[in-house]
Amino acid sequence: MVKTLEKVDVVTVGVGWTGGIIGAECAKAGLKVRGLERGNKRGTADYLRVHDEFKYAIRYELMQDLSKETVTFRNNRKMRALPMRQMGSFLLGEGLGGAGTHWNGMTYRFLPYDLEIKSQTEKKYGKNKLSKEYTLQDWGITYGELEPYFDKFEKTIGLSGDNENPFMGERSSDYPTPPMKKTPILKKFENATKKLGYHPYMVPSANLSESYENPDGERIAACQYCGFCERFGCEYGAKSSPEITVVPTAMKTGNYDVRFHSNVTEVLKEGNKVTGVKFIDRQTGEEFIQPAEVVVLTSYVLNNAKLLMVSDIGEQYNPETGRGTLGKNYAYQIGPGSSGFFDEQMNVFMGAGALGMTIDDFNGDNFDHQELDFIHGASISLAQTGSRPILTNPVPPDVPVWGSEFKKASIENYSRTLSVFGQGASMPHKENFMSLDPDYKDAYGLPLLQITYNFTEQDRNLHKYITAKTESIMKEMGAKTVVPGAPLTDYDIVPYQSTHNTGGTIMGTDPKESVVNNYLQHWDADNLFVVGAGNFPHNSGYNPTGTVGALSYRCAEGIIKYSKNGGSLA
């Protein structure tokens, strides 16, 4: 028997960065908010013995349980999609904080060009720069309009950075805390890129350079450079995450609570309004209805799209006709790069998730694409994240990958190898999309989400171009052997590449081309909001979290406006 709970003003589905920000802002405004989190409660005290590479980095202790829910994948519509049985290309978070617990902390603002990419590309290069198969579109919001929300997110997390990037959008204030330490390894990258005429700057880091108290009164500690960030929680409370920032802020209001082990299976809709959500208690198997004035989908990209699909809200994208928007513009990223083997030893085991230097000389439209066979670009970085011994076994290409020779070379090169990598933008293509799988179901009887995706000619051309740039930087850094990355072939869901999935619930100004407006309010139900990287109409040359944070504050403002006045915010 389904039990109906007491109605709340706002319910969020998921309590990571997006759910935490929505919860904090709405609760501070006096709204009663409930967060439904299908994972467990956790925090800094649970990470005191987190330096276990096997448990967390190999066995994915903090990640989604794929035996209960996963995705199916295929490269094209002619293939049969098969389930992802183990974590591979991307790592799906679960539990309080979501992926904001195990992230690295690199926190960029997308470029002004990103938000108006279609109009700016056509203005400069004409309408035929990309073929019509690429479903490029503007976001329906400008950088200037989004800047105050970027600023607010950065102050909430105490972002550490410098102002050395000449390509960044205008800022209304400086970074809240200074940049992280510029280590000897980073200085190698800095000197080499400057000699090549580029403009290096410190990666904006949510691993804080010094202790900090944010505007809500939450304290964040200083990073210890232990080298256990990505795939791990922070035992020091020094990596800004939802559990130490926005969630405590929400709790202090008395207007917020979180219900754990609560897996939402449906958004309930009547007419042009949603009425709440249905969820299953994962521990007891009981089914509940949570009524709410406003429903906000704040889970991961893939889960937000799936929940709308199984709830039959919005029109599923059809690649045959181009009609529909739900599931459209799924995009990933490319990872060009080069490795370098050096004579001298370096302290590669030390580091932090966002300890690094970057150049944007080949990102966005910061360089001329007139004679190039692609648009956009990549940030190019060297990151000193902390090399751990199980997953780090670098050997030159002429060394066998097993046996005594491999072991000797692996030990020799462990502290003598560096990598320069690019985060390459991915443009949306009509054949890259999300849908429901017709065959496979999750533990609750719902269809699995199906991803249809492959790299495109745009991706391959950009990858080749950026790989050459990383190779020249590594040579300038003085490596005795430089190994550029292999050319792109077909996308495979293994091995790990990044967790930077975007699209599927894209934003815009036209219901025919987007799922939500620029307040992330659903076109088909004005009391339903959907927020996350799924709102991005394309992917960029950066990590998505800074832009997700900004959109979350924009969304929270919209929810508060809607709660006072009702109606569409478009």
From TrEMBL:
Which residue ranges are recorded for the region named Disordered?
Answer: 161-180
Write out the entry's keywords from A to Z. Answer: FAD, Flavoprotein, Oxidoreductase
The segment(s) forming the Glucose-methanol-choline oxidoreductase C-terminal domain are 428-551
Entries under SUPFAM superfamilies matching the protein:
FAD-linked reductases, C-terminal domain (SSF54373), FAD/NAD(P)-binding domain (SSF51905)
Q: Where is the Glucose-methanol-choline oxidoreductase N-terminal domain?
A: 220-329
Does Disulfide bond appear among the keywords? no
> What Pfam families does the record point to?
GMC_oxred_C, GMC_oxred_N
Task: Tell me yes or no: is Magnesium among this UniProt entry's keywords.
Answer: no
Name the family the entry cites.
Belongs to the GMC oxidoreductase family.
Could you tell me what this protein is called?
GMC family oxidoreductase
**Organism of derivation:** Virgibacillus halodenitrificans
The beginning of the lineage is: Bacteria, Bacillati, Bacillota, Bacilli, Bacillales
